[in-house]
Automatic annotation (TrEMBL):
<keyword id="KW-0472">Membrane</keyword>
<dbReference type="InterPro" id="IPR039868">
    <property type="entry name" value="ARMD3-like"/>
</dbReference>
<dbReference type="InterPro" id="IPR013636">
    <property type="entry name" value="ARMH3_C"/>
</dbReference>
<keyword id="KW-0812">Transmembrane</keyword>
<dbReference type="GO" id="GO:0005829">
    <property type="term" value="C:cytosol"/>
</dbReference>
<feature type="domain" description="Armadillo-like helical">
    <location>
        <begin position="149"/>
        <end position="387"/>
    </location>
</feature>
<dbReference type="Pfam" id="PF08427">
    <property type="entry name" value="ARMH3_C"/>
</dbReference>
<dbReference type="GO" id="GO:0016020">
    <property type="term" value="C:membrane"/>
</dbReference>
<protein>
    <submittedName>
        <fullName>UPF0668 protein</fullName>
    </submittedName>
</protein>
<keyword id="KW-1133">Transmembrane helix</keyword>
Amino acid sequence: MLFVPDTIEEHNIELPQEIRSMSGILIALYEAVHYNRNFMTTLTHCHTSNNYESHPSVMQQTQSVTNNPDLKSPSDNQFSNLLVTFFQYCSIVMQDTKTEANSNNSMLCFVILSSITDDQFANSLMHDVNLQFKVDLYRSPTRRYMFVPDKSPKPLAAALLDLMIEFMLGHMMKKLPLDQYMKCISIIHRIICYQKRNSVRLCYNWKDLWSSLITLLKFLMTYEHQLSQDMNIYDLGIQIVNIFNLFITYGDMLLPSPSSYDELYYEIIRMHTVFDNIYVLSSRNSSAVSEHKLSATKLSNCLINIRAIINHYIPKIDNWLEKNSVTTPVGEEILEVVRNNYDTLTLKLLLDCLGSFESNKPNHDLSSSSLIKLMVSKVVKDTRQSLKHSNTDLQQILQNFSLYTNPS
């Protein structure tokens, strides 16, 4: 409720000055989250706002939201914490990454979220089923959404996954914000790795995540020629495929039910052409002289188990269709074929292809430091420009300064 865009014109969202000028607060939040482990307790502390709706600032902003038909605002939720507010703020900032200032703010939000998902205590609270919050993510009414999140109260880890899916599906463009996508996928990776280490089964509609990742892979494949001229899209592809490898290898520890594991295989089989084309693309670039040759080779190696699933089930499904004289099978029939043929499926334990975000921590700190330095200099510059020297008594300031420099 405290962060509301003023206007939305087509896909360009004009963020108000209150949000554009919050870079300094974001920097302070990053410092607190990244360097002060005790701050996680404050960030995840649950509180009940007293007389929240009657606060003058809230009443004023509520009125502005009501008068703006182009904005879908979240409903009031008195039982909350700072993470809920931050997730909602991120959902606004991440809608517009076209300008440098907005892109930096969005990137810093991802860095903060990465630090939060690195923290064991924060992860444990975000996955606590007894702590459920209603997190209303902001959505632009002018954008077509393929993903509609469940708005019921849920653990914060589920809300964070919703936020990452919103970003994934909302920024697939030819000027792809690759660094932010890498952060987005790595945050999802961190959440899943925490669940694997602690045998946490998050009650979540994982099909939404799988479909979004496949959609992103399809986008990378479709615009590979344009995108690969400016960036290494194969590293992003590796991160995406590794998430599928995590579910394939450790799905029995992660997914809430055996049927969820069946649905994972169903999605891979249903969208097998995307994985086939990605494999052809990566294999072609791994055998050619290219600056992305190593990444393309690694991507093709990461697809081994996915291709094994596809090559195992596609012939069996075709045989079942021919045997039963069916031309258009329904989903339940395909799932039945999947369940009946697990025993004959052979997969490899791809420990090297599951990825490890810990190994990227030095690069993470280096990139974050350069971003922080850039944003601090911008905040200092903006602050200096905003000072009104005409109303300042410079003579009085000089006299006060002389008292400190010449105490005698």
